[in-house]
Amino acid sequence: MAGFSTRAIHDGQEPDATTGAVNVPIYLSSTYAQEEIGKHKGWEYSRVSNPTRDALEANLASLEGGTSAHVFASGMAAISAMVTLLKTGDHVVCGENVYGGTPRLFDQIVAGYGIEFSYVDTSDPVALRAALRPNTKLVHIETPTNPLMTLTDIRQAAEICHAHNPDLDLAVDNTFMSPYFQQPIALGADLVMHSTTKYLNGHSDGLGGVLVGTKPRHKEQFAFIQKCTGGILSPFEAWLVMRGIKTLAVRMREHDRNGRAIAALLEAHPAVERVWYPGLPTHPQYALAKSQMSGFGGMIAFEMGSLERANRFLTKLTVCTLAESLGGVETLISHPATMTHAAIGQEARTRLGITDGMVRISVGIEDLADLEADLQQALNSL
Ligand code: P1T
Question: Given 137, 166, 180, 233, which residue has the most CB atoms within 10 angstroms?
Answer without folding.
Answer: 233
